[in-house]
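Rotation project, supervised by the postdoc (A.L.). Task for the rotation student: set up a whole-complex structure prediction and record inputs and outputs verbatim in this book. Inputs entered:
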Amino acid sequence: MAATSPTPEQESVSTRDRILDIALELFTEQGYDKTSIRDIAERLGFTKAALYYHFKSKADILLELHLRLHALGEQLLNALDALPDGAARAQQWPRLLDEFITAVDENRELVLMHQRNQNALEALQHSERHHAANDDIEGQIRRLLADSELPAATRVRMACSVGAVMTGLLPDGLVGDIPHAEKVRLVRATVADMFRDPA
Amino acid sequence: MAATSPTPEQESVSTRDRILDIALELFTEQGYDKTSIRDIAERLGFTKAALYYHFKSKADILLELHLRLHALGEQLLNALDALPDGAARAQQWPRLLDEFITAVDENRELVLMHQRNQNALEALQHSERHHAANDDIEGQIRRLLADSELPAATRVRMACSVGAVMTGLLPDGLVGDIPHAEKVRLVRATVADMFRDPA
DNA sequence: GTCTATATTTCGATAGAC
DNA sequence: GTCTATCGAAATATAGAC
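Outputs recorded:
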């Protein structure tokens, strides 16, 4: 009974998701501010008024996309929280980084949209108090790199490794013609090297 | 005769620069699209109409800020162009990276604004044909990492190092309470390590 | 669920007085 | 160089018919 007669709810979710997919694409390409409700609607074959049946505002669409990324981050957060203190977390950093790479790679588009629309997303979290301040991935990593009693050199190295992953993996990255799977492998190797003992 | 009686031109340049400084600040904080001409003008104590005496359009302000960064990039470009081929350039990469760090560090605000407004800047270069496609820093680096016959592993590593510098140095970076000079030193060490022979 | 039509607001830009 | 006043264009959002 899984494949037959979708509930009305499922029906509407389907259109919702089509909207979100197009929005994700346009927000990434043109930016949130330069993408109008009309742009999104016309891509889907109807008018902007119809869109307001599915979402109550433009910001709501962006919020939904943010929540998609937020959900993905929770797995990583759990891995972080399972460790006792800052030192233990730092020790596990290479492993966490590897999971981080997998997560970023599997959701490149979402991450890229997030990165290209930092301003719009900030304004969103400012009005909608949808989380305190640090319950998303970035906040958690930021906390780890700020609070801990780790040596500054280690913390800077960790921060740099995050940036290395982003630049190496994302679609608008600097390297062009390398097959994607190969690129992922090489990024893994690169950041792993950053935490290898130089014995 | 240098310190006395500024020319009318210098007088106006002074106001121009005040506008550009405020714009840089607001574009970084709120984003280009969410910053209105009025926002900028009122920060300086006059109305938006007055601003149009100094700049012919809002995009013109952004363009001017872009040119500031562009000018800084030329030194690095010259260093790159002085080297014969891709292989030689790759060999000199650590040294170029060190100069790159200096340049980014000395112009953090400008770089951050550039990074946070990629979309707006893209639209700018699309209308104003102010350079072909690759005569800015990013384009040059991109060319080096794409065209060359270097091994993919080296190219990915180079790209990652650029991202590492950005994330490590910029004001909205992940590490918080480390003194800036120390942070710069540690970033230098981190990326230098990425190209050390693992003998 | 989608449409047409419209209300409302905001913004970029210009004209012309001072 | 700065002002007031205004135009025109766009965008978000709503109302109500179908």
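Student's summary: Residues 73 and 137 of chain B are 5 Å apart (CA to CA).
Supervisor addendum: Chain B touches chain A through 47 residues (CB under 8 Å).
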